[in-house]
Queue: 2 jobs
Job 1
Amino acid sequence: MKFPVEITVNGVKRRSEVEPRLLLVHYLRDVLEITGTHVGCETGICGACTVHLDDEAVKSCMVLAVQADGCSVTTVEGLASDGTLDDVQQGFWEEHGLQCGYCTPGLLMSAHDLLRKSPNPSAEEIRRAINGNLCRCTGYQTIVHSIQNAAQKMRAKKPAAAKQVQPAKLRTSKRKREQRRPATV
Amino acid sequence: MFPANFNYVRPNNIREAVQFLNEHKDDAKVLAGGQSLIPMMKLRLAAPEFLVDIGRLPELKEIDLDDAVLTIGSLIRHADIETADLIARACPLLAETAAEIGDAQVRNRGTIGGSLAHADPSADLPATMLVLDARFSVAGPDGRRIIMAEDFFTDVMTTALRPNEILVSIEIPKMSRRTGCAYVKMHQQASGFAIVGVASLITLGRNGRAEDVRVGINGVSGVPYRAHAVEESLRGKPVDERNIAEAAALAAQGVEPLSDIHASSEYRREMATVYARRSLQRAAQRASAPQRH
């Protein structure tokens, strides 16, 4: 059984027919041959495969390609433009935020998600946000510095962006008990 | 590592999903965020013939607060629960619990209903559901029914949900005034799962003594449980350090704790007491403070 999917990857609309069991990370790496996203532990722990799905960090080894149908995906390849590193990449470059570099694509994507939601995070907040990204070189100290460095660059460029984004787009409602609809299927 | 082959269906509404489940029963599994099911399928611990993807159904993505009940759609993600103002105000214990789940990426994708229906003994939400006296609204071929949290978790990774039912929403009754809650947890370092997780709720009476005490424990037993011995011990007493420690010592009474590579049975028993004490202390502080938690 193949299932048609349309996924926008790094701004480009891609159409494919995929087996439902195909994981998003393998769709990116093997079908589209966009290999910047790494496969690490394969059990959903290490975070090397972190990409953005509709602008939020997810582990692409724990998402089926069919679940991303109709969504937009950003990988590490989508960060730099015209060969110029973006602020988070530059932040890592300057602060030596990588040694072997295996975890880096995932860490960059997690850092982006954090900085979008919280433009001026404390070191503690950064550590919590990258809890799902393992660095086996244990370079966490410099990774935290790198993200702080990136945050500074982004704030300097866009003071308006320092405003907290509304994290949850939810349909919420508050009303009196008697106004509630009866719950039916 | 990838899952065994399966057929994928994406129903347009709850009715269609239930209908499909009713036709295929145990051969079909419901997919929400997939943060528990997909890893299980990759390890081939689960190999369903059909995956019923309910992840896009808008009717499962609503949060509703009225004067008596907070209703949370089963597809609400942990990240939403952690950050939504409405939940922070109405049920801070739930927000505190959701913030402890896995890591940021898992919380961006995992859903409250998915986690509860998966019923992992080391999950975080079950104890909190027990403490909050949550009610689970479930859709099946014959319509809706309610399952109380205390009846929901029946065994390791087993719930009272039938194979042809879908968890639709979680209803949490409003808490009384002078109530403090807390969720405190010992993490398994890599996965973030709870080795021990203790949710507690204390309501103080006019005399400053504990009028209502509820304690729920994850990770220790195969099934999350209410630690009734702890609750009875503290009820009616001042919530001081000594009374809390005395009560917390009963946290694993009558329970045969799990034993695995992360923690032995004895260690879990000991940690149940330590974390019950910490959880109760925090809940007691919050109950006494003007701001409700």
Job 2
Amino acid sequence: MNGAENLSDPLVRLGAWFLDPAHLGALLRAILYLALGVTLARGARFALRRSALALSAQQRQLLTRFVYYGVLILFGISAMRQFGFDFTVLLGAAGIVTVAIGFASQTSAANLIAGLFLVVEKAVSIGDIITVDDVTGEVLSVDVLSTKLRTFDNLQVRIPNETMVKARITTLNRFPLRRVDVKVGVAYDSDLALVQQTMLDVARDNPLCLDEPGPLIIWTGFGDSSIDYLYAVWGKSQNFLALRNGITRELKAAFDAAGIEIAFPQRTLQPGTTPLEVRLYQMPPGGSEPGGSEPAAPQVDTPGAGEGTQPPSGESSDAGAERAQPS
Amino acid sequence: MSETRERAPARTGLKAAADESRPELKWWGSVDMPSGGVVRVVAGPTRVWVERRSNDWRVFSAGSDWPDERDACPAERPHEAAAEELEERVPDVRFCFADAPTRLVVSVAQADRAFVVRPETRLSVGPGERVTLYVSTPTWMVLSVERVARKRPGTRHKAEERSEPQRLTELPLERPSDTWFGRNTVAGELCYATRTAGYLRLDEVPRLPHLAITPVTIENKAADPLEFERVQVPVPLLGVYADATGALWTNALSLTRETSGDLAAVKVESGVPTAARGASERLAKPRSEGSKSSVVRAFSRLLQIGANTP
């Protein structure tokens, strides 16, 4: 019973404090301040979201949050002062608190400051398509501590702002034009003038491929199996994927139509001094596998016609030499 | 089965008075269609079928069949087509209505971007010379529908009341290639590209149903030759006219190079171009009106002298 009285004692005293007519007025004023603060903060947020200010989505979001929470904090402090809270005491302890918080939240503070740098530098904006490290996606928001991306397979990736500041960011849609690079190798026996003209014709006939800047055709080297080119065409950034898919399909079709072979690695086996002997056996009707018994009518075909049949020898089996041969 | 019945041949016909003159290049016009009716329009390399159902309009298009035989490009105004022509086709798009309007209006429009016209051979205008270059650019086809209410015979007012045309779709009669007009790949303007033989005589200019001819008059008052590789023709700022043969024309452009060498005085000539004989009415107003200052800005970079985008 005594314990219950001790427990209820602070509550009773708090109730009595509020019921005191002098404190009741403070309570009502505090509630009024809070209600006014919430209303004003929401009103300011609503107005900023729909205002015609010439701000980017990211700047608008940042300003809205700053104003919203700023108004709430100011009115909250005013409400607390109605109960006699003295905030100068908190200011005195602020130094100690700052040191403590600083040690406890180094990472968060670094992310916070990095976020400010990101906003001030305008490194990324909401709606940008960026690649950070190996992640590519659309920027959903640049928040206080992190930047959120939506990848093309519809995953949300949260990247700490500190990482964003340190990482190499590639923005894919910052400029109106993009270049599609296609590496292509043609066979060594190709007519290179025809190859280049075919590439130009493909670019000219694709409406998504810009006429100016024109297509680039750059010889990049004599490869192991092909003569290599960099074929680069320009297009509108929004058409990048359509252009990349279309131009490769059309290039392949045009090469096929012109008799140009797109080279691929090939190996040609050449025998040494002695030609390899090849034997063809004709299966007798209803007969068994050749080799099990003496074939009935062996037909022999050798590289050197007229040389007759030669029994396989150990010499010819290791006479083949392997070397890369361009097609 | 019901779809087959709906595709019965339509009893249609053009209402336009211009029918009597039979301009051979004309492909625009309007036509009243019953439910199940099919019409075909042919304009240069583009063929379009439009079918009316009770609750929707269906648009079918075919690709370019005559890309290499431009001189043979035909023109057919909207006219009744056999339903069998659509048997194997799937509509590109359907436009749904509670009660589909009855009249199809096929009209002409300018392209939605400026054209960069590159002469096939480099052109040079000598000092003190004034030449007119005729360039041709593809136009767009606009399909609209409108409701028509017939009035009783004997009424003194017009025989029918028409609603405002409701635009269904538009399509380029020849899809031009994209190009960029600017000093570099960051700053500039996305345009369409086309090439011209640089016709200087009017009788040399081929008349094709899907191309609009723009007379560009260039006057070089400077002491040195004016050489240029490409000309930007801001067709969205130009109206479209048709001459007696049905060939399309736009407002003329004039460009003057002053003695100082600057390209200053550039303007759009108002009204029907003088070279378009027999043209009377404007078929399409400019796609974007633009203020006078914007016109000046657009034209101040109309002509680039030897400029190459890196």
